[in-house]
Amino acid sequence: MQFRGDIATPALLLDLDAFESNLAAMATHLRDRGKRFRPHGKTHKCPEVARAQIAAGAVGCCAARLAEAEVFADHGIPGLLVTTAVVGSGKLARAVGLAARAPDTVFCVDDQDNARELNAVARAAGVIVHVAIDLYFGRTGVPPGEPALALARVIAALPNLALAGLQSYDGEASHTTPFAARKARTDDSMGRAIATRTLIERDGIPCPMITGGSTGTYRFDADNPGVTELQPGSFIFMDIDYGRIGGADGPEYRDFKNALTVMTTVVSRPPGFAIVDGGYKAFSTDRPFTPRPVNLAGVTYGWAGDEHGRLDLAHAASEVTVGDRIEFIPPHCDPTVNLYDHIHALRGDRVEAVWPIAARGKSQ
Ligand SMILES: Cc1ncc(COP(=O)(O)O)c(C=O)c1O
Fold first, then answer.
1. Residue 14: in which H helix or E strand, if any?
2. What integer pLDDT is reported at residue 295 of this predicted model?
3. Which of 42, 172, 176 to mutate to test the pocket of ligand 1 (most atoms within 8 A of CB)?
4. What is the domain-level CATH number for residue 40?
5. Considering 206, 240, 274, which residue would you say is the last residue of a domain?
6. What is d(CA 303, CA 275) in angstroms, rounded to the nearest whole number?
7. Which domain holds residue 278?
């Protein structure tokens, strides 16, 4: 049996009690409101986590990339939704291959020519491919309204594509603060998606699904009668970034618990500082703040290179010595997870499981 103190560092740790509580909270919230739950696998890239989500009531698993979806399919995860467009002949052939072995997979499209190409590959293979129109809210997608209707008409006329519905993901809405502004932006974006579905269905084209939403917007989306399913990702782990978006009751977002930490070891103790064995290769570096130590008051982390971090001990509440293990909440969970081969799943201090992050690095 392995314990927390036996794990070689830097290492990714999951507090199973917090993870299970987050998962149950989201699953129950959505079930009580009659919404399908298709959590985003880009956060964890881990088939074991996807299996736990399905056991909690999820209908499947989103994937940000085709390669990620292929890994989930290889591990028997059903109900896949590839949330970004698949572009280029090589990838389209793989997408159709995936649709052949996992026929309920849905692929996002936002371009008429891309839809025609996908149809041609599917037709040659004798496969029907389910697609969702990705709507534009600032990154990818086709604008809601008439442009989306034009794409729906193209899809409806293509014999080997079947329109599953619309994807409405507004990434900026997820992190809009404060709470009231987040609600206003989310309801506005979703409102445009729902109006687009009405437009498409009035044209005689069935458009059953509206999928979207996130950890930051789930409350508003779950209360919106037009939304059929939600695809939140980060809620299972949480991170510093999400903690800062604010909740209904104050500046901290407390709907979910921090379940993910990176454990490091103090490897050097120069005067006034402690150097830990986690640097740029151990944490995401895409946010303007640094990892936050857990249970070590008065100490701040500073980047000290690829392999190291520097803890300023000037105001440390306790002594720190070489060999001490220090855990941190990562700034941003998704890109941090992508740095590790395994998640150590802990029950208290006991390692209950070590889960491979099988889709780690699978961005193609
Ligand atoms: C298309 C899509 N859906 C859902 C999510 C999940 O968002 P979150 O991790 O904020 O819950 C993401 C995250 O980037 C996304 O890109």
1. strand 11-15
2. 86
3. 42
4. 3.20.20.10
5. 240
6. 10
7. 4-10+254-356
* 161: its two tokens: 């594509």
- CB-based contact 40:62 (threshold 8 Å): yes
pLDDT at 308: 98
CATH code of the domain containing 341: 2.40.37.20
Angstrom CA distances, 128 to 69, 89, 101, 153, 262, stand at 18, 17, 11, 17, 43
One-letter identity of residue 50:
A
Tokens of 72: 């989930």
Ligand 1 centroid distance, CA of 264 (Å)? 28
- Give me the DSSP letters along 18-85: HHHHHHHHHHHHHHHTT-EE--BTTTT--HHHHHHHHHTT---EEESSHHHHHHHHHTT--SEEE-S-
- Amino acid, single-letter form, for residue 81: L
Protein residues whose CB sits closer than 6 Å to any atom of ligand 1: 40, 42-43, 83, 169, 171, 174, 214-216, 231-234
Count of the separate structural domains present in the chain: 2
**Other CB atoms closer than 10 Å to residue 334's CB: what's the count?**
20
Rounded CA-CA distance 120/37 in Å is: 31
Domain boundary (198, 213, 240) is at 240
Question: Are 352 and 16 in contact, with CB atoms under 8 Å apart?
Answer: yes
Which atom of ligand 1 lies closest to the CA of 333?
A: 9
Q: What share of the chain is helix, strand, coil (3-state, %, to 5)?
A: 35, 25, 45
Cβ–Cβ under 8 Å, residues 48 and 31: no
Cα-to-centroid distance, 30 and ligand 1 (Å): 16
Whether residue 34 is found in the same domain as residue 120: yes
The closest alpha carbon to 235, from 223, 252, 249, 253, belongs to 253
pTM: 0.97
pLDDT tens digit sequence for 256-288 = 999 999 999 999 999 999 999 999 999 999 999
State whether 132 and 213 are in the same domain: yes
Handedness of CA 6, 11, 16, 18 (dihedral sign): positive
The list of the chain residues with pLDDT below 70 reads none
Domain contains 246: no
Classify 356 as helix, strand or coil. Answer: strand
Domain assignment of residue 141, yes or no = yes
